[in-house]
Predict the structure.
Amino acid sequence: MTDTRSPDLRETVISLDMTGYVTDWSAGAENLFGYTRAEAVGQHVLFLYADEPGEGEGDMPELFLGQGGSTVKVRRRKKSGQVFWATLTLDLQHDVDGTQVGMVARLSDVFESLSPSDQLQLHASIIENSDQGILITDADERIVSVNAAFSQITGYSPNEAIGETIDLLGSGVHDADFRTQVRAAIAGSGPWHGEIVGKRKSGELFPQSVSISVVRNQAGEVTNAFSIFSDISVLRATENRMQRLVNYDNLTGLPNRNLFHQLVDQGLASAKRNSAYSAVMTINLKRFNSINDTLGHEVGDELLRQVSQRFRSLLRDEDVLARSGGDEFVAALFSIQKREHSGLVAQKLLAALAEPFLIASHVVHVGARIGISVFPEDGQDTAALLQYSDVAVKRVQPDVEPGYLFFSPEMNQRAKERWQLEGELRHALTVPELLLFYQPKVSLRTGKIIGAEALVRWKHPQNGMVSPGKFIPVAEETGLILEIGNWVLEEACRQIKVWADAGLNMPPVAVNLSARQFDKLLPTRMVATLERHQVPANKLKLEITESLLVRGADKVTPIMNELVAMGLALAMDDFGTGYSSLAYLKKFPITTLKIDRSFVIGVPGDENDCAIAQAIVTMGRQLRQEIVAEGIETVEQMVFLKGLGCDQLQGYLFSPPVPVAEFEKMVAEDRRLKFD
Ligand code: C2E
Ligand code: CA
């Protein structure tokens, strides 16, 4: 019977004559063996045999001759020399008379399982050739085997590594917790994957991605642990580079607009939680293009770098500064106390450009204009705030002071008033338009004047007397308070000396000190001032506020102690409004507490105010401090506070702050407080 199966292209079909010569060779045979039809036809089939016959192959002719067809497993050799296992089916072919004319062999290769020794050898060679570092330890955590990649990554040869513990690669950067986890994995707590910083033989640290697993014996005990690791420093470096490209400006190293958005989103989220103000600024450099064109791009680039450095050094760490393109920077300030403060920062940034830049022997002047939008008034999110600061910056007129504008007209009005006030205040210091008023303090025991507080006044040429409530905050913010504070001290000392020279017996004068004046050099300055005016320290007292104490006791206590050692008495002003606690008070060498006027207003009507006033007096008496009740306007208030045990009174009930001549008169007349 003739075989009618048509050989599939992929099927390996070999036709043979009865003596074993190849008469036909299918495409599948070409594929499997690698010989072309022309090479195979005419050859004896033995050329495909491997050296050793497969199982049962010796018997094959008998088998198929006897049974007319059979399947056996055989070993054959490809043109490449590779030996493989295949299943072989042989069918006889007959002609029409039934005479055997040939054979058809069909082969398909079979998966070959490895002998145990081949398997071992293969595993060993996989380990050796792996591009991941492999390190095998024994139960004592000693290294027993490493592969070539291990040596390549770490720099240790097998000889140097084997016998050492895994501490050989320890970088020392991981904390105890992390090391415990890794050790537990090595001891068999379960497979572990993670990133570890390792140390190469050269000492260089490198990040590696590691998997740790263990091998157990039949009893379940850990006999070995192995870690497979790859050096991911290149990956990290690429990631970092990508990160930089996406988020940072190449030229200045500042964040770009993209990262700015992210950072401001975060900052605004926390500002929302704290109900704080924030501000966004667009800063445009002026004349940058002409500098670029006339002096060249290199000078332009260097200028941008230097400008960014000046700006960055002025801002606080938590503020964000970014370069958003060309000659434009953007900045964001978070958790600002007052919206106006952003205007002060803008002023500082503009002032930072006043000094020219020295670049490649060129002296370069550059200016800027700034637009400010304020969160939450102007916008709730980064995009809106940026849009409005962009609008604001375009409205800044060239060469019109102060060079910045808010988005909101109301803020601009306020900024303008402040700007004016600041200018006038500077002027007031030089003219001088400032003067001191004196408000007497009287004893609640005798009714006698026993002191005075010096309070600054500003005699404005147009506006008349400006109250310190209006200009002291501006002075605090602009730093002018330092000059004003000095002026006040000088003036008070000068006055005390005038009284002494005139033979007047005047009580001591207290001056208010701003927290800004309270620095390490204050005691030295005080000594100099007292000496210059020949004023004994007991004629001067200093009033300080609680806001000073937030700086931390360790910073302010030594300064206070120095002042007290000089003989100056310290009074705590506005007591009860801020951070005061008994614990604080005990630490500081304070002799006087001034109960804030806000508690005095409510006594004796308001229960709460009464309770607070009473608590303050009790506390003060325990600490043996003198207690002054400030802002007493009525007899009822006086009676109540005297009853609590206050020592002194200061307030309109006795006298408002008055010019020096009037104060002198009161003392000369020995004017007294009446108790009924
Ligand atoms: P302060 O230190 O709490 O001064 C007491 C303020 O209460 C003074 O206001 C005074 O005029 C006012 N006052 C006194 N008795 C009464 C009263 O019975 N009723 C009412 N309604 N008010 C009374 P002034 O002079 O306007 O000063 C305001 C604040 O300005 C001061 O508060 C102080 O914090 C600051 N200040 C004034 N002069 C100076 C100064 O020379 N240096 C510094 N750093 N701050 C100053
Ligand atoms: Ca005061």
Notes: The chain is about 40% helix and 25% strand. The CA atoms of residues 163 and 346 lie 65 Å apart. The first strand starts at residue 12 and ends at 17.
